[in-house]
Amino acid sequence: MTEAALPLVLRGVSYAFGEGELRRPVLRAVDLEVRPGEIVLLTGPSGSGKTTLLTLIGALRAMQEGSCRVLGQELAGASEAQRVQLRRRIGFIFQQHNLLGFLTARQNVAMALELAPGRGERERLAEAGRMLAAVGLGDRGESMPDQLSGGQRQRVAVARALAGRPGLILADEPTAALDRQSGGEVVRLLRDLARQRGVAILLVTHDPRILDLADRIIAMEDGRVVPAPQADPVRTG
Amino acid sequence: MNALTRPAPAFGPAPDLEPALLPWAPERMGEAPPPAPAGAPARRRFGPVEALWLPLRLAWRQLRFEKARLASAIAGVMFACVLVFMQLGFRAALFESATALLSAMRADIFLMHPMTIVSFKPEPLPRLRASQALALPEVAAAVPVYLTQATWRNPATGVRRAMQLVGFDTEAGVMDIPGLAPLTEALKRPDTMAFDIRSRPEFGPVARLLGERGPFEVQLGHRMMEVVGLIEIGPSFGADGNVVMSELNFRRVVKERLPSQVDLVAIKLHPGADRDAAMARLRAILPPDVMVLSQPQLVQHERSYWETATPIGFIFMFGSLMGLVVGMVIVYQILFSDIASHLREYATLKAMGYSNLYLGKVVLGAALLLAVLGFVPGFAISVLLYDVVGKGTFLPLGMDAARGFGVFGMIFGMCGLAGLLAMRKLRDANPADMF
């Protein structure tokens, strides 16, 4: 497979906050590739630049230096409109569920489908219902987010991230706000659904309990990707 | 548990991935686009209805969710709406009542002295001008009109009050006043007059007395005059009540008045005559101490005095504007706090690929929904208040379609502006800060 066909290719990406003397580099010449269907965990201490990297890849931030190709779209010099377009093809999962409190679970999932024209309301809601069933919440479609437990909300967020048939999933510590059991369930669900669809996942985490899910673990320190002892696919049985 | 069946992903074709299912767009990479899977949505834009409907629906769902906030926003818009309606209603009613006397005088053309600025302080013009106007062949008749004020003694209580007197040749049929036609015969008799039924009640229960006893005498000025019938004019700023009488009876009441000094001349044209042409010719032949006006122009002349020479117009425009500003601030506050308390959700939507334009449409949609939701009850309350207040103040308060649409436009604009201001808060919903 050529490099162009990879969902994610970073070459020499650097990023700094601030100007002049206050300039503080957070990313230094990061190279990274994610292959189709691969599940990559990004770990490292706070301040190592993981989150900044994720926001760059997610087209939430303008690039400064280097090249970042996400799903075939070069982000260096991309316009705001191009970045908005790209975000529609990426599924985001946040630390908090960030569901819209005034919509039901099903309507929240359907929000990911309303971005693409060509489907009627009935189809969108049916598809959202199927996504909720896939995360095991088929019977909670009409619940408001505040009637759901933390784990259920995060599962709705997973359904929402996957509903738009994204080419890449970015997750930022999706288990941080959850207890051990529900956190593990959510991430396994995410992995299984992504595998079925052949979608790559880039997941930032501090949580050692979910390291075994990864095809590959990348450690970051001080804005650089460092060789990590677990950088090989974990294959414990 | 998670033993992988396929080899660790390596560089090279991934055999288990069908190219047709690649979730990103191969056409961007210069590859041949795969055949579109059956039923896959074509890449096209939203229709205009859907592009407006979906954000509007999201706005409505958000508004609906917080009932208390929605209620206070609607109350704010309603308040502004009622305030503007009342201000504009009072303004129109005052101008309308200010010109009630002149509006009730129906004739084709009027002559007035150019220095007359308002009808209750008229500058007299020579009676001769009425005869001169007859020089034009299209003029059928011209009658002088005398205006003055005299005291009227309330027939029930004996209290005296200033009354507007209108004297003209009531038989000539040149000038009509609502209700006057059936009274022309009775008004020929000496010392008779017709009373304005819409005069303020302080003048006494004239209509009731007339019904009970038939024509009866009332002291007007220093003379006893007989009320023979009722006409309809309405109180104006200059006078609380009106009586109409023949020219001769007018002279009997107002003895000091020179008959040669008239206040207005009413002109009737032959049927089919061109009024504008006749007015132009009158201007050409009459000396410059005469202003030639049509009836609407006469009313407008009076009205412009109240609009420009008094602060009435300004006061009510200012009141309306304040209502709109207060309403706008309320709507802005509601929308602003709505956005501020949902920044994370808005940022999430942005991260999902919703554009600023879309979210702007949501905020503006919410503003315009509030406009509609607040206007409807505000309109209903205003109609009710017009009725109640109109009856209490004898002001001609009435809702008309033009004012209804006008105020709706103002409320719509007010909410739209508030929405545009609140939209700036959306910039703070930065998805890069979400991670």
TrEMBL record, chain A:
Highest classification ranks of the organism: Bacteria, Pseudomonadati, Pseudomonadota, Alphaproteobacteria, Acetobacterales
Residue ranges occupied by any ABC transporter domain in the UniProt entry: 8-236
Domain of life: Bacteria
InterPro entries named among the record's database cross-references: AAA+_ATPase, ABC_heterocyst_DevA, ABC_transporter-like_ATP-bd, ABC_transporter-like_CS, ABC_transpr_LolD-like, MacB-like_ATP-bd, P-loop_NTPase
Pfam families: ABC_tran
Keyword ATP-binding recorded: yes
Entry protein name: ATP-binding cassette domain-containing protein
Cross-referenced NCBIfam families: heterocyst_DevA
Keyword Lyase: no
Gene Ontology terms for molecular function: ATP binding
Species of origin: Siccirubricoccus soli
Alphabetized UniProt keyword annotations: ATP-binding, Nucleotide-binding, Transport
TrEMBL record, chain B:
Entry keyword annotation includes Cell membrane: yes
Domain of life assignment: Bacteria
Membrane-protein topology: Multi-pass membrane protein
Transmembrane regions: 70-90, 312-336, 357-385, 405-423
Protein keywords: Cell membrane, Membrane, Transmembrane, Transmembrane helix, Transport
Location within or outside the cell: Cell membrane
Pfam family, one: MacB_PCD
Main localization, broad class: membrane
Domain MacB-like periplasmic core, first and last residues per copy: 73-285
Annotated ranges, domain ABC3 transporter permease C-terminal: 318-431
Designated name of the protein: ABC transporter permease DevC
Organism: Siccirubricoccus soli
Gene: devC
